[in-house]
Amino acid sequence: MSSARAVVVGASHAGAQLVTSLRQGGWPGEILLVGDEPVLPYQRPPLSKAYLAGKLGLTELALRSEDFYIKQDIKRVAATVEEIDRSAGELVLGTGDRLTYDALALCTGARPRRLRAKGADLDGVYYLRRSSDVEGIREDAIPGRNAVIVGGGYIGLETAASLRALGLHVTVLEAADRVLERVTAPKVSAFFTRVHQSEGVDVRTNALVEALVGDSRVREVVLASGESVVADLVIVGIGIEPTTELAEAAGLVVDDGILIDAHARTSDPTIVAAGDCTSQDMPRYGRRIRLESVPSAVEQAKVAAATICGKDKEIGALPWFWSDQYDLKLKIAGLNTGYDDIVLNGDPLSDRDFTCYYLRGGELLAADCVNRPRDFVTSKRMIAQGDRVDPGALERTVESRGTS
Amino acid sequence: MAVVTFMSYDGDEHEAPLEEGSSLMQVATNNAIPGIDADCGGEAACGPCHVIVDPAWADKVGRSGPEEEEMLSMNPDRQPTSRLSCQVKASESWDGLTVQLPESQW
Lengths: 404, 106
Prior knowledge:
The structure holds 2 protein chains of 2 kinds. Chain A has 3 domains: 5-111 and 240-308, FAD/NAD(P)-binding domain (3-Layer(bba) Sandwich), CATH 3.50.50.60; 125-236, FAD/NAD(P)-binding domain (3-Layer(bba) Sandwich), CATH 3.50.50.60; 327-396, Enolase-like, domain 1, CATH 3.30.390.30. In chain A, helix 1 packs parallel to helix 8. In chain A, strand 13 and strand 14 (218-223) form a beta hairpin. By secondary structure, chain A is α/β, with parallel strands linked by helices. Chain A has helices at residues 13-24, 58-61, 66-71, 131-140, 154-165, 186-198, 245-249, 294-308, 373-385, 391-396; strands at residues 5-9, 30-35, 74-78, 81-85, 90-93, 98-100, 103-106, 110-112, 125-127, 146-150, 169-173, 202-204, 209-214, 218-223, 228-230, 233-236, 240-242, 258-260, 271-273, 278-282, 287-289, 320-325, 328-333, 341-345, 354-360, 363-370. Chain A is 24% helix and 29% strand. Chain B is of the alpha+beta class. Chain B has a single domain (3-105), classed as Roll (Ubiquitin-like (UB roll)), CATH 3.10.20. In chain B, 18% of the residues lie in helices and 20% in strands. Chain B has 3 helices and 5 strands, in the order E-E-H-E-H-H-E-E. Chain B has helices at 24-30, 58-61, 66-73; strands at 3-7, 13-17, 50-53, 82-84, 97-100. A 5-stranded mixed beta sheet of chain B has the order 2-1-5-3-4. Chains A and B meet through helix 1, helix 3, helix 8 and helix 9 of A and helix 1 and helix 3 of B.
């Protein structure tokens, strides 16, 4: 075995994929995966869903078994990384130890945006990003208690659904005038509001948090309007920020994420990066984008590993996302930014399945598909091919159900 | 030990031990089987964990559920015994099972 050592910083979804792809791609030497969580790399999407609801354990959450890493000769290192010494080709660990590398990948992920309000550091206030966060929430999530969720984005709404399933009273506070304001059309927001209300969630919009009040534990949330909401626990889901300090300090270009090219190379072509910590110029959208998406993290990781192994592979897949709430499976194909028209198939005000197509200049940009897996697959294909579409046909097409 | 064989499109065979209760996708990813990707982590949301079950085993392994079926129905490599391996709970009683991987996962 060659002595060349590849080090992946961040045992995230991207990190775990990257080490796997390195081995599969024929990296001949050592592979080290450095992470600061004491558990096997795991899937984050189920944290706010099945894991919070208690339907999945940590073992099932693990991306791969312990045995896999042993058999593939991938060494997991439990440590924080304090510094990248590019000139020496070394990492400085939290322990003060130095770790040399021949190839380096950054998969440092993202962290929850902090709530800037008085009392935000009280006990009983949670964020939701790591399995340990959810374990804390679960201890506090006793049936009958009042949970207040700050943020009506996907994480907030998924958490609301899971906590309702656990028997808590749930209030969602959204600062904008509708939930999912940043990511969906108003009619889709109205749909999710309707569903959550019918499930017993108190959804409040234009609700700006002024302060969290309590002695040592949070007791209530005070809004800018003067209203207050009783809270036994508060979960904050107001977005994430890429973890870029390490890259920045090492002099790599950072622009709302560690900037990578189509080969997942950072501004130092000997260092690659993948996952939620990155931003990239996407020719499809003509701008720089930071994606918060597992499929994208996986793709970037595969490309990054190929680049390290000297293979020519480019990032190019269409971004897609999913969210599960109650019996609803939302799948989103593409990014809708800049849409000038929407076409609805099905009625979000009465149905429990529909597709909202987003168009720009007659071209299909994106589609929100609720309980419509076929529409999702078809949309993904049409968007990727840049098909021009007939809005009338999109509206009329009746999704035929599976025939097995 | 019960073993499942994953056969790639070009006929390469990879064996993996069947772990009771794991999904066939987890069995594949835990054993570094090439050609099985778990991009969505087992949500029946993507498709590159598609396998074609040996017809002789199809009844034992079981048929696709409704959501899985919708995903499969859009797949050009679809065969009568196709499954998304993330939706197949493995059993140790399946020793000798063979599944084939479609061309698109080659």
